[in-house]
Amino acid sequence: MPADRSAVASPAATSSAVTCAAASAAVKPRKPPACDRCKAKRVLCHPSPAGCPRCLEAEVKCTTTPVNRKPPRPRARTAVQRAPGRPSPAFVPVPTLRARSSADSPGDCITQSAAASPNSNSDQRLWTELPFELDDSLVKDLIPLAGLRFTHPFVHASGLYDPAPGTVADLAALASDVRILAFCAMAAGALLSCHPSIVGSGEQNPSTMAEAERLGPDLRDFGRRRLGAFAALRDEALRRAKGGDTFIAATATDAAICFALDFLFAVDRPHDAPRIFLATHLSHVRVLAPLRSAQDVAAGSTHWSMQLAATNLAGLGDGTPLLTSTDLSTMVEDPGMDQQTYAQELADALRAPSRPGQWPRVHDYAVHCVRAVVALQDQLAPRARAQPLNEASVLSTLSCIDLLRSMSLSLVAHADRLLPVASDQSLFRAVPFSRVQALKSARFVAAMSWTSVVLPLYHELRSRRAGLQSPSSSHDTISSQFALERLDLYVRQARAYAFAALEAVMAAIERTQHISFWTHLQPRLLPQWAEFLIGEFDSGHTHALGARLGPICQTLSATLLKLGYVYSTPHLDHLIERLDAVVQLENFQAALSLPPDNPLTFLTLLSTDPTFFLPPDANDALSRPLAGAPSTPAAAMSGLDAAHTLPPSATTSAVMAGGADGGIPVGAAPPLTPSAVPGAEWMWAGL
Q1: Domain Zn(2)-C6 fungal-type spans what residues (predicted)?
Q2: Going by DSSP bridges, is the β-strand pair 63-64/3-4 parallel, antiparallel, or unpaired?
Q3: What mean pLDDT do residues 220-246 have?
Q4: Is the CB of residue 564 less than 8 Å from the CB of residue 219?
Q5: DSSP run (H or E) holding 687
Q6: Sequence-ordered strand ranges (E) for 352-495
């Protein structure tokens, strides 16, 4: 019931409130609610015991109706059990869940929903709001599936795998920075997980990767279904990293977090977007100087050099500058021998008897690849592009590419010879791979690393050639004409190396069937080569591949379809459609290749190939041969029935279609025209 303003706030109550306010100056008195008349008009009210000024001016009674507020909703919480062997923190909160609609973006559902206790800071909270329940089974399933990128030396220096967390309590007991890295590992594991919380529940959900590869050629539905969970975990890791000093402090764990975030955001990042997390990672590495602190990160190890080579696989091809010449002294160990000597040593080792325990030195090869990328990056700098083309540097880079390709072939041959005698037991270090898997990954990186230099060089030479005009004999000098001809030669040579690199990538994928080896290495690797191949086809430069173009496009399209199990984006769908269109066009042109001695082969193909369309009115005519006449391809194409008669020109052409047995020269008969063959206008209109 409405109450009088004077009844709501009496003088006694007012004096009591003033006394309380004077006793506790830190507590601010609450403002009385607005009166009913001001609330109805939605105007500012100045409540007073005698009535607000608006009601006094209107000479109406000032009344206020109290609002009945509901009590706060109780929040359900689940206790977290402490895992044995780990210290229990002072405050271990647990995940809280909320329903998430389909319209919510993955980043909107990740907010910190509960306040921590006074004894804990914001980094010690585990309150998350995810589109799935973060339980022990999910943590145990995701972290071991993080993949090759999480074998980085900085990741192992952080202590994430000492041992790896297997429950929610283990995750809560980690240090704040290691917990961020654990969320990054879970996001990477979500790209391969078969857990129902990630891919949903369904009858055809695989339980292992082997079952997933047998589901069919197109696995993009799984990539679309897991995208929400992957983005939620990735955004949760980024949110926690922003809340701390990850991007400021130069520690091994913070460098590993930036390295992992660069990999995670490369899944759906446009190719021309800046790689800010990679730049932060490299700045941390420059401060750490791994060569000077070998006890923390083994800079001379094969893992470190292979990770640097894998980072360069798609970075420079997208125009992202990575390392500099000064970084080589602090990040990369000197290989000890030049490229020529190392390539010759690998070739000599292939001719020697095989030793099961002696693996090839992949570290030296990876270091040579990194140094080649850095040298090429100096040529692609804006200062170098403003100068005339340094042909000596171009020739040196082309020679380096040839040597790196020779090293790659030798290392792949070494690995193929060691695989049958390698044991499948676990390695005696903190990496989740067996010896066979480690050898396969080394073989895959060896087959891929040399290709990182090819595309940047080709794009640079093409852009320089496009900026120059064609030589003119009347105005240009002889030296400028020959300079343009040499540049054209460099472009063709770089294009040949690019096609060879593409075939090497496809061969490496066919040798390594497991999806994780070529999806978790570099997400931009395969889309980058698909873009290159489509661009060369549109420019008319794929004639050098000849008959190999169709199979290469078909293999690359099938690989992208298989890649859809891990992640699927609209850009990948567009690339698959373009590659399939190239395959169909190549098959069509191969079917229409006409021998020069028989021009009627094309017409015979139209009549016999079931893929070509026939109009409904021609189906009946073509299905009934002429009575008393020999069944020939020309007769079947003519579309004649009992109501039509053959003109002389059509009869002559029908005899010609029989081949050499007809005995009529090719030029002796009139040409086959629409008027000569009644009912065949549809065929000529199609031509």
Answers
A1: 34-62
A2: antiparallel
A3: 89
A4: yes
A5: none
A6: none
